[in-house]
Amino acid sequence: MVEISCPNDCPYLASARDHPPARIVRQQEGDLASIVPFMRDFNDRQSQLFFLLLTFLARYSAKKPRYSEFSASSYLSAELESLVDDDVAEAFGALAATYETASRGVLYEHRPQAPPAERLLGALKPLLAEAGKAGGSVFERDAAVVMRKVEQASRQVLPSASGDRRGFLDLVGRVIRAQTDGDRAPEEPEAAPRLIVP
Questions:
Q1: Which tens digit of pLDDT belongs to each residue from 58-85?
Q2: Which candidate, 172, 67, 57, places its Cα nearest to that of 117?
Q3: Which of 111, 115, 117, 183 is the most exposed place for a label (fewest CB within 10 A)?
Q4: Closest to 140 in 3D by CA, of 91, 99, 109
């Protein structure tokens, strides 16, 4: 092999640097490197709950509110108050506080202040109720730890380049989309005709 020194404006070098698949791979590696530190000390149950919540967040933040879900006056405000990272942090902080007090034997439901955070909390409740059916206080402790980590992650991930305050939600969307794309089973080719030779 021969190595030549290319100038920075070489079209071949620029093409290699900007090749979409390589750029996507670099972004995916960076995204995973941003998420992994938050789940460093998790046990198996906590890891499963963490990814369950991230998957839920990716689907929830991609979903637009339907007109039938709101009255005419609240529809406009719901559109203007779309979910941002601060809402995620507030909702998960309230849930973490609720689970922490429940694990100590005190039943008190903490509520977020922002309406989008309140809607997110309301949407999370059935998912958590189903996940914690047989868990008891062990589930409450695990859920509190995971909720605090999601809250921490949503506060620490930087806003996206456009400054729309959805850096964490965008990151979660990319990580979950990459994971589900990688988990898809390859389509089986149609069975080729077989010839039996005696």
A1: 999 877 554 444 444 444 444 446 889 9
A2: 57
A3: 183
A4: 99
pLDDT top residue among 167 and 137: 167
Predicted pLDDT at 151: 95
Please state the three-class secondary structure of the chain as a single string. CCCCCCCCCCHHHHHHHCCHHHHHHHHHHHHHHHHHHHHCCCCHHHHHHHHHHHHHHHHHHHCCCCHHHCCHHHHHHHHHCCCCHHHHHHHHHHHHHHHHHHHCCCCCCCCCCCHHHHHHHHHHHHHHHHHCCCCHHHHHHHHHHHHHHHHHHHHHCCCCCCCCCCHHHHHHHHHHHHHHHHHCCCCCCCCCCCCCCC
Cα-based distances in Å from 128 to 1, 73, 109, 143, 145:
58, 30, 14, 9, 14
Q: Choose among 97, 63, 58: nearest CA to 79.
A: 63
Confidence check: pLDDT of 24 > 60: yes
pLDDT digits (tens, 9 = 90+) for 125-151: 999 999 988 777 889 899 999 999 999
Across the range 160-165, mean pLDDT stands at 66
Residue 171: exposure state from Cβ atoms within 10 A (0-12, 13-18, ≥19): buried
